[in-house]
Amino acid sequence: MEGMYEDGTGLLSIGALSRLTGVSVKTIRNWSDQDLLPPAARTPAGYRLYGPDAPARLEIVRSLRELGIGTAAIRAVLHRERSLTDTAERWADALDAQICTLRLQRSVLRTVAARGTAAEELPQMTRLARLSAEERRRIVADVVEDALDGVAAPAYRTGLLTATPDLPDDPTPEQLDAWVELAALVRDPELGAALRRLAEFSARTAPAQAAGAADALDPAAATGAAVRVAELMRTRAEAAVAAGIAPDSPVAEPVLAELVAAWIPTQAATPDPPAEDGPAARTRLLEQLETAAEPLVERYWQLLCTATGRPTPPSWGTAGTWTAAALRAHRTPGEPDRSAFERLADTDPERVLAAYTRVVRDIGALVAAVRPDDLRRPTPCAGWTVRQLLDHMVWESLMAASIAEGAPRDDHTADHLGDDHVAAFEGSARTALAVFTGSGMLHRTFGPYEAPGGLLVQQVTVELLAHGWDLARAIGAPTDLAPEAAAETLEAARLIYGAAPRTEGSSFAPERAAPPGATGADRLAAYLGRSPD
């Protein structure tokens, strides 16, 4: 064999071994010095010679090195001090740890890139990301224990402590971002105070049952029932909002009655449980909703679920606000005041339609005067810009038309304005007018209380004129809108909303006094709680 030592012993020189295996002379010499590939002999001049088994042994060393196994471990395998199986298992475990570290580093870097983290925030984010699972649990547990200290609410406490922030080995940027925000949130004293309020409420209302009682309530069954009722409340209330049902309107009562009826059985094991729908039951349900309305606690659960990969609970903000407002407005179950229905029966349908047409005419001209820059302006409707106000006005007409056609819309949160607010308003008004005149709506009834169709048209007219006044105030335009229809529109508002309580979360604030010389639209706005000044 070429490169064999010339004495005929069959030994390989270091150069021959290098050419045979493709491993450099320098590397072979280094491995020989580390006792991984000892020479079989040396020449008289002291050069290393390797035996016939050297190529195979060298391949073993090279393979183990490529797998990342250290020199000492390779030497132990070659000297039969440790089995290859045991060595492989140990190094695989070590690699797992390294992989976890690398994944975490990658997640931190991706999160930094995604959220635009400032350099000053990086050390804190990195520290939080490197915490062990036990350290993360301890951060949350300390807050819970401190907040609930002295409160006898074991079930509530257990629920909080059981839900721990266990990040996966390879968290996504969203999960790591959620954990960083959660770690900051639990340091907020307001969160601790909110958790304590909920625990105290839980302690006051927890079922009191004798140990071993035969009729003891199954906790799992009770929790399941409560979850189902909460989901029913959320979906029904959100559907009511989407359908444009004001919480203080008569149409809200049957929705509320269904929710209270479903909720009552879940209170069977609580102290002094309500037996039927009535003021006591509605007051208790309202208290529960008001107590549960803790935005920081809701955010805590959202972040915890996001960080751990659990399904994020749906937000209760919209549903909770609507249901609470409905409970305040309808303290006692009962039929709505039907006097408005009876009085409307004496109103000429054509007069109702004419008032709508006049209001749409003047509001349409006002909408056409809105410039693109005006769309960002604030309005007297708290929290609404001009664009949001216009979108709502368009939706009001579209919603009324869909009710008349027997297919109420459920896209309250969609964008109904698009890029052309004038075309959107005019199109919705044309659609509504066509349905009002062509479907026989003015001579039909709608809903569980058989409300006259004309009443629905009047309600839309009131909404459009009131919001038209909001728009005029927002863009600095005159408020003398539809003067020939404003007075009768105010009378329609008194007829429709006169019995509605002006409570927190309701459609309208308490009535205000209209100033001397107020226009008809000004007086309508004042009646509905707007400040005419």
From TrEMBL:
<dbReference type="InterPro" id="IPR017517">
    <property type="entry name" value="Maleyloyr_isom"/>
</dbReference>
<dbReference type="InterPro" id="IPR017520">
    <property type="entry name" value="CHP03086"/>
</dbReference>
<keyword id="KW-0238">DNA-binding</keyword>
<dbReference type="InterPro" id="IPR024344">
    <property type="entry name" value="MDMPI_metal-binding"/>
</dbReference>
<feature type="domain" description="HTH merR-type">
    <location>
        <begin position="11"/>
        <end position="80"/>
    </location>
</feature>
<dbReference type="InterPro" id="IPR047057">
    <property type="entry name" value="MerR_fam"/>
</dbReference>
<dbReference type="InterPro" id="IPR034660">
    <property type="entry name" value="DinB/YfiT-like"/>
</dbReference>
<dbReference type="InterPro" id="IPR000551">
    <property type="entry name" value="MerR-type_HTH_dom"/>
</dbReference>
<dbReference type="Pfam" id="PF13411">
    <property type="entry name" value="MerR_1"/>
</dbReference>
<dbReference type="Pfam" id="PF11716">
    <property type="entry name" value="MDMPI_N"/>
</dbReference>
<dbReference type="InterPro" id="IPR009061">
    <property type="entry name" value="DNA-bd_dom_put_sf"/>
</dbReference>
<protein>
    <recommendedName>
        <fullName>HTH merR-type domain-containing protein</fullName>
    </recommendedName>
</protein>
<feature type="region of interest" description="Disordered">
    <location>
        <begin position="503"/>
        <end position="523"/>
    </location>
</feature>
